[in-house]
Specification:
The protein is an alpha/beta fold and 279 residues long. It is found in: Cytoplasm. Keywords: ATP-binding, Cytoplasm, Ligase, Nucleotide-binding, Pantothenate biosynthesis.
């Protein structure tokens, strides 16, 4: 596995692969890798002859400077984890100046999808995501890129921008990977205190209970309100809890075939997100 830090060096290698008829699979990450990321790498089995994983903590998607500074980093450990898979050809790890050189002035906005759910209380977050993902897709020349369903809004947004900008890449969704107690894998989990880590699994448990109530025919609004109150009673600050279409992300009051339950809730200053199919 090669570690590449410059887009010029990456472009040279990608051109060589293209000339040799290789296909390129890509997994974008912000590092602090875990089994969820490795699942994304494995999801490209049989889909591409070369795999690139990027690690870049993207400053323009953070609305809180302290959150950006606190985001866990560990390139050496991440590189060893990727090397151990035997599947990754390149770890692309550019720095901020490489991605956003002096004078950089462009932002990509995916209107509509950027202002709901996480976008509603994280202004500019999805502009940052859309901008960096577009750059990375172009830099890697990816034929296929894997994205996890845990960040379902992000997945929808990226599908939209790829379609709208006619980017020649296929987006492959990968189901959420969970701990044995149900908590969705996330780099942010490492920042939870021992007590918070004990509380955290109640988040997916509450979602499952809410979905069971909705499927039993109880009123959606009443189920959501009960779930919010239960989460608060277990120490969560609930940012949103919505039943929405998995296609459009618009709210729904009925159990449509594509309905999903979405939540963002914090324990202390650690924000956790999750979603589950409701039908």
């Amino acid at each position: 596995m090669r570690i590449i830090r410059s887009r010029t060096e990456l472009a040279t290698l990608v051109a060589q692969w293209r000339n040799a008829g290789e296909t390129i699979g890509f997994v974008p990450t912000m590092g602090s890798l875990h089994n969820g990321h490795l699942t994304l790498v494995n999801a490209l089995d049989g889909q591409a002859t070369r795999r690139i994983v990027s690690i870049f903590v993207n400053p323009i998607q953070f609305d809180n400077a302290a959150d950006f500074q606190l985001y866990p980093r560990g390139l050496e450990a991440d590189a060893a984890l990727l090397e151990g898979t035997g599947k990754v050809a390149v770890l692309y790890a550019p720095d901020g100046a490489e991605m956003y050189p002096e004078g950089f002035a462009t932002r990509i906005t995916v209107s509509g999808l950027d202002g709901m759910l996480c976008g509603a209380d994280r202004p500019g977050h999805f502009d940052g995501v859309a901008t960096v993902v577009t750059k990375l897709l172009l830099q890697t020349g990816a034929d296929i890129a894997a994205f996890g369903e845990k960040d379902y809004q992000q997945l929808c947004l990226i599908r939209r921008l790829v379609q709208d900008l006619n980017l020649p890449v296929r987006i492959k969704p990968v189901p959420t990977v969970r701990e044995a107690d149900g908590l969705a894998l996330s780099s942010r989990n490492r920042r939870l205190t021992p007590q918070q880590r004990e509380q955290a699994p109640y988040l997916p448990a509450a979602l499952r209970a809410c979905i069971a109530d909705i499927q039993a025919g109880k009123a959606v609004d009443a189920c959501l309100q009960s779930c919010r109150e239960n989460l608060k009673s277990h120490g969560f600050n609930v940012h949103y809890l919505d039943l929405r279409s998995g296609d459009t992300l618009l709210t729904t009051e009925t159990l449509t075939p594509d309905a999903r339950l979405f939540v963002a809730a914090s324990l202390g200053d650690i924000r956790l997100i999750d979603n589950m199919a409701a039908a």
